[in-house]
């Protein structure tokens, strides 16, 4: 389950934007909780970690609210 404070977005990211999103994912407690559940294998299979370590839902990068506000 996800709070409404996150939005799933499909995007083709430029390297700087991707770096910012990945950094903010690490600061977001809800995303970090999801990351932990992915690593433990106790979350729905739609949630994955990309090769860059970013949390993804249905193969789309999860963008933290703070990044959406910028």
Can you walk through the features of this model?
With 70 residues, this protein is of the alpha+beta class. The protein is 41% helix and 17% strand. It has three helices and four strands. It has helices at 15-27, 29-40, 65-68, and strands spanning 7-8, 47-49, 55-57, 60-63. Strands 1-4-3-2 form a four-stranded antiparallel sheet. The longest helix has 13 residues, at 15-27. It is globular, with a radius of gyration of 11 Å.
What descriptive keywords fit this protein?
70 residues; globular; alpha+beta; 3 helices; four-stranded antiparallel sheet
Q: Give the beta-strand count.
A: 4
Q: Please indicate the percent range of residues in DSSP E strands (runs of 2 or more).
A: 15-25%
| Count of separate DSSP helical elements | 3
* Basic shape: globular
Main β-sheet, in a few words? 4 strands, antiparallel
Residue windows where pLDDT falls under 50 for at least 5 positions? none
Q: How do the SSEs run, as a string of H and E?
A: EHHEEEH
> Which class of secondary structure composition applies to the elements?
alpha+beta
Widest beta sheet: strand line-up? 1-4-3-2
Roughly what percent helix?
40-55%
Q: What integer is the average pLDDT?
A: 85
User: CA-to-CA gap between the ends?
Assistant: 25 Å
